[in-house]
Amino acid sequence: MSVKHQDRRRATQTRWDKDVAQSCIREHLDREGPLLPILHALQAEFGYIDEAAEVLVAETLNITRAEVHGVVTFYHDFRREPAGRHVLKLCRAEACQAAGGDPLAARAEARLGVTLGTTTADGSVTLEPVYCLGLCATAPSAMLDGRVVGRLDPARLDVLLTEAQK
Amino acid sequence: MTSLRLHIPIDAAALAVGAEDVARAIESAAARHKVAVEIVRNGSRGLYWLEPMVEVETPAGRIAYGPVTAADADGLLTALLGNGAHALRLGPTEEIPWLKRQSRLTFARCGIVDPRSLDDYRAHGGYRGLARAISAGAAKIVEDVIQSGLRGRGGAGFPTGIKWRTVAETAAPQKYVVCNADEGDSGTFADRMIMEGDPFVLIEGMTIAGIATGATKGYVYIRSEYPHAIATMEAAIAAARSGGFLGDRIADSPFAFDMEVRSGAGAYVCGEETSLLDSLEGKRGVVRAKPPLPAHKGLFGRPTVINNVLSFASVPIIMDKGGAFYRDFGMGKSRGTMPIQLAGNVKHGGLFETAFGITLGELVDDIGGGTRSGRPVRAVQVGGPLGAYFPRALFDTPFDYEAFTAREGLIGHGGIVVFDDTVDMAKQARFAMEFCAIESCGKCTPCRVGSIRGMEVIDRIIRNENRAANAALLEDLCNTLKFGSLCALGGFTPYPVMSALTHFPEDFGAPPRLQAAE
After folding, report:
1. What DSSP state is assigned to residue B416?
2. pLDDT digits (tens, 9 = 90+) for A27-65
3. What is the β-pairing status of strands B389-391 and B377-382?
4. Is residue B516 predicted with pLDDT exceeding 80?
5. Given an 8 Å threshold on Cβ–Cβ distance, is B267 in contact with A76?
6. Residue B344's closest chain A neighbor by CA?
7. Where does the pLDDT of residue B419 fall: very low under 50, low under 70, confident under 90, or very high at 90 and above?
8. Of the partner residues B49, B341, B428, the one whose CB lies closest to the CB of residue A136
9. In whole angstroms, how far apart are CA A121 and each of A50, A100, A113, A159, B466?
10. What is the C-alpha to C-alpha distance for residues B67 and A1, in angstroms, rounded to an integer?
11. Does the B3-100 domain belong in CATH 2.130.10.120?
12. Which chain A residues contact residue B17 at CB under 8 A?
């Protein structure tokens, strides 16, 4: 699905810098099949994959820009714009659906005033669906900035939402 | 001064329900009580409704308490310093009936050992399989794995030993061992548990595969949704390397093998082996047509063993105890044990490893204890998002590859998601099509376009527009997906859709199926 970010003013990571990007790329050049590790490194550094990064990667790996662009857009993880200050992922897969995930997702959307896949107007939270965190016996589950949370109920979700909106 | 040795899981699902807070709270309670407490952060035993579970070492073995919250820390510590009595006391861990009735072969150490300690792994029987593999040699390893009857645990169920033999017999200057740890099926978490709880068993299994086939390089492709598993695997690989179990002369043998972790990037389809290989090569994860088989032309066009985490993790015990030992578990053509995962709206959810042959009903009602909501079980989805929904009428189905196939289902990676009677099966059928549309790699038209059309047709059925004609159209469309797609994503999406329509017609506005029909 497309991940739309309504607000691009608040990047949490460093601003685009060609030299930094170049060193991210160089670090992985001696690996077999280096493109995904490079893209992960760039996203970890900048929070998203800048268009200028695609050009740089293509030149360095001697592949076309279209190939790089194709890979960036194929994988759900890679962002083309910065996310909000916090990223809240709600699991929307079957085990979490069975355990009451649907009304929780609706509650999160209503309280944040966004739909899944978008960022709040103030740039505080990007709310995203995720298809399985592997926490299916303690469902429903979520991940806030890399921290996993299980056995979600409205009260536990509200605590997460408050934390994310800070 | 009294000293206590405790075990608190660092497994992601235990962390998700507060295991870290519990560990911190016990540490500070220990400081207040002025007692020395050593906390080992192990994997999970897989009894998730009891997580966070705290175990204490006693002369009589490990005693479990759970589910513990941070607020229980003071009281629990006082109890542990006294006679051990506490409201959350579960007794000796190994005696908990849910654990005791399992046959833990692949998961023998999970939840017991410190996952980052090579010494602990070896102290619990680790690397005995490798030692035997090194002395037995390549041909005998392949023979043992074939004899064990082990079939690919990722879902396809192809005999692991046959795959290994094909790679062994294919000459090439470089061969690879690739572990598919892209465990994307909802309702499954066994791979994650192994990687977080007993990562060395996976390293050992892959190393044995390398010796058996002549491959010297391994990759573990782990989905990015599993950051804890990635970190633990990386730590374990580094420990194995510095301990001489990876590198040029593994365990002082002439064999060389090394491996590394690669992170996926959120594409479900990369769990399909050929798209995983393309992803590893740095491409879009698009499915390849077979032949050529990965065993002939796999990663970078080289002969490649690609297996699931559980397949590799089952190999060390097969090498240690022999193919016949493993084969003695199971039924029919499904040999050995299967780590079954009970998930969703289930009272006793977790990892239940048992010999093939147990019925679905026993698993859901008896072991799972029914729903957590307390309402009646209406449907279970077995085998992930591409698996069929089974009604109660089919709960006599034994857990076995062929038995599930015979009932238009699949066991897949062994996940069972339980739904209560509030489930709307038309909505679930629609979701199956929606998920296929979101995750399709785009190569095959039936999958890429058919899934979108499928959502639209189901919407029309739900709205009662030409219901009978649209139901027939949906069945026709499902056949197109089933027979016109290269991989399981398009090919198996019809399973959840058609099983929902067949077994729960009333949710699609048709008269209910007669109970006597099954």
Report:
1. E
2. 999 999 999 999 999 999 999 999 999 999 999 999 999
3. antiparallel
4. no
5. yes
6. A95
7. very high
8. B341
9. 21, 28, 9, 20, 43
10. 37
11. no
12. 138, 150-151
pLDDT of residue B518: 40
Which residues from A are below 8 Å from B when comparing CB atoms? 1, 32-37, 39-40, 61, 67, 70-71, 74-78, 93-100, 130-139, 141, 143, 146, 148-151
Residues A138, B16: C-beta atoms closer than 8 Å: yes
Determine the topology of domain A86-165 in CATH.
Glutaredoxin (3.40.30)
CATH 3.40.50.11540 describes domain B118-328? yes
Q: Which of B15, B216, B225, B433 is the mutation pick for testing A, counting most A CBs within 10 A?
A: B225
pLDDT confidence band for A12 (50 / 70 / 90): low
- Write down the ipTM of this complex: 0.95
E strand or H helix that includes residue B280? helix B273-280
* Separation of alpha carbons B96 and A30, rounded Å: 50
List chain A domain ranges.
3-74, 86-165
Specify the DSSP element, H or E, that contains A67.
Answer: helix A65-74
Cross-chain Cβ contact A40/B227 below 8 Å: no
Q: Provide the whole-model pTM.
A: 0.96
- Quick check: B448 contacting A, CB < 8 Å? no
Q: Which residues of chain B from 276 to 295 reach within 8 Å of chain A, CB to CB?
A: 279-285
Residues of A in contact with B352 (CB under 8 A): none
Q: Which helix (H) or strand (E) holds A89?
A: strand A86-91
Instruction: Say yes or no: B347 contacts chain A, CB-CB below 8 A.
Output: no
| CATH class name, domain B336-420 | alpha beta
CA closest to B423 among chain A residues:
A98
Q: Where are the domains of chain B?
A: 3-100, 118-328, 336-420, 425-517
Nearest CA in chain B to A99: B345
Per-residue pLDDT at B513 = 72
Q: How far apart are CA B29 and CA B25, in angstroms?
A: 6
Question: CB-based contacts of B184: which residues, under 8 Å, 6+ apart?
Answer: A131, A132, B223, B225, B268, B270, B271, B384
How close A30 gets to chain B, by Cα (Å)?
A: 13
Q: Are B402 and B334 in contact (CB under 8 A)?
A: yes
Classify residue B226 by burial, with Cβ atoms within 10 Å: 0-12, 13-18, 19+.
Answer: buried
Second-level CATH architecture of B425-517: Up-down Bundle (1.20)
